[in-house]
Design goal:
It is a single chain. This protein has 213 residues and is an alpha+beta fold. Helix content is 56%, strand content 9%. Helix 4 (92-121) runs parallel beside helix 6 (157-171). The relative contact order is 0.14.
Length: 213
């Protein structure tokens, strides 16, 4: 008998990032796969040596799975994909497509969308990154014009990663001219496992509010 997977997130965060803290990606995958897990916490403030030993940048999430410890949401999603065929196909081509699109979500999309969002929040809506970001959106729009899912003609962890990367740009109107991507995000986030993941994260931080009060 194996122990539950331990997913670690912050004990509390301000209102702004709630629903978007990246443990939601892992909660979502765990719910999709039906894997047994527990949620542990690490302080949002006063991050100590134990946190930095597990996540050298002081971020979340990190995960422990029966002695296997790892951080970074992309790495964790691929680890979970290897545990469940619901998250990643077992044929070589399907696995390769899933891997490449998880990496593309992070390296070709999120590495542009996150700086764009940070600069926008800082008060500069025309921050010089919008053109670069739109070029990436144009390429992805062409891909999604020909398929419903990114990899292996089915839902995989690649869709968890990409849909979550696109949620904030979509919320801020950056996908208004990209109907295929809007439809894709709506389709992927309509899944019950996503809704439960977000609800559970919001409940987690709401409970922390009550404890702090």
């Amino acid at each position: 008998m194996t122990d539950p997977i331990i997913l670690t997130t912050y004990d509390w965060v301000p209102e702004g990032p709630r629903g978007h803290v990246r443990d939601v990606r892992i909660r979502w995958a765990l719910e999709e796969a039906g894997l047994d897990y527990e949620v542990a916490t690490t302080p949002f403030y006063d991050r100590g040596a134990t946190h930095f030993q597990r996540q050298p940048f002081g971020q979340v999430p990190f995960l422990e799975d029966n002695g296997v410890k790892l951080f970074e949401s992309g790495a964790i999603l691929l680890h979970l994909g290897r545990k469940s065929e619901k998250l990643m196909p077992r044929d070589a081509q399907g696995e390769a497509e899933t891997l490449e699109w998880v990496v593309a979500s992070l390296n070709s999309m999120e590495m542009v969308t996150v700086p764009w969002w940070f600069l926008r929040v800082s008060g500069d809506p025309d921050n010089g990154l919008a053109g670069w970001m739109n070029q990436r959106f144009e390429k992805l729009e062409s891909v999604l014009a020909e398929r419903d899912w990114l990899a292996a003609s089915r839902f995989t962890v690649a869709d968890i990663m990409m849909a979550d990367v696109l949620r904030i740009p979509m919320k801020l109107g950056a996908l208004d001219d990209f109907p295929k991507q809007r439809a894709y995000v709506e389709r992927v986030t309509a899944r019950p496992a996503f809704k439960k993941a977000v609800e559970d994260q919001l409940a987690h931080f709401a409970s922390a509010d009550r404890a702090r009060a």
